[in-house]
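Troubleshooting entry. The earlier prediction with glutathione gave an output that would not parse, so I re-checked the input for stray whitespace and re-submitted. Clean input:
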Amino acid sequence: MGAPDASPFVIKVMMLLKMAGIPYREAQGNPLKAPKKMLPFIVDSGETIADSTFIRLHIERKYGIDFDAGLSAEQRGIAWAIERMCEDHLYFAMLESRWLDRAIFKQGVGTMFKILPAPMRPVAKIMLRRANRARLIGHGIGRHTRTDIAALALRDLDSLAAILGEKPYIMGDKPCSADAFGFGIVTSILTPSLDTPLRSAMRRKPNLVAYRDRLTRQYFPDLACR
Ligand SMILES: N[C@@H](CCC(=O)N[C@@H](CS)C(=O)NCC(=O)O)C(=O)O
């Protein structure tokens, strides 16, 4: 859909591997067959690691990488808090619009069911939309109206834009752990094919758009920025 992957968590792991300089091969994943019934997971020399943050910890431990090298303890805490805001709050606002807003679903994730045989698609769509509704209710954000969810997400966008400011990366002159999902969520929300209110709001943040363009050129040079 114009981003390196449809899932910001998959993009996060691609970014972490690129930042660590570890070559990898991508494979089409099926959440139903994934260890935690979610993507991403990786297989590293026969060892399976599921969940983007556990993958980060695995890379740090096994390959002796410190994604936050050069940051103070306070800055590491801030980087973690920014990542949590994006993963555990802003992501869910995006999930709500992608899956539950019918028009946006049709333009976006609804088009990804072509990998299934045609007769299975309608049932799969209903099941996955139901599963995501349940996930959003379980999270809590799905209990609010769409307008209220947008208001909460806008606070996240304002915060992220203010924290980034004119810096090239979230925590300064060097990319760190927070940039992996930071880039993942910014590029996902700016996905050209999805005309969401969240995307319109982010397009009004020139520093976030420039951040997406800059990191796309740096890490995914094959993808043309739109
Ligand atoms: N905490 C997980 C979240 C991953 C996640 O939410 N993955 C979504 C795709 S963006 C997924 O696989 N959803 C399938 C489902 O909910 O059934 C991580 O960091 O990897």
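This one parsed fine. Residues 73-100 form the longest helix (28 residues).
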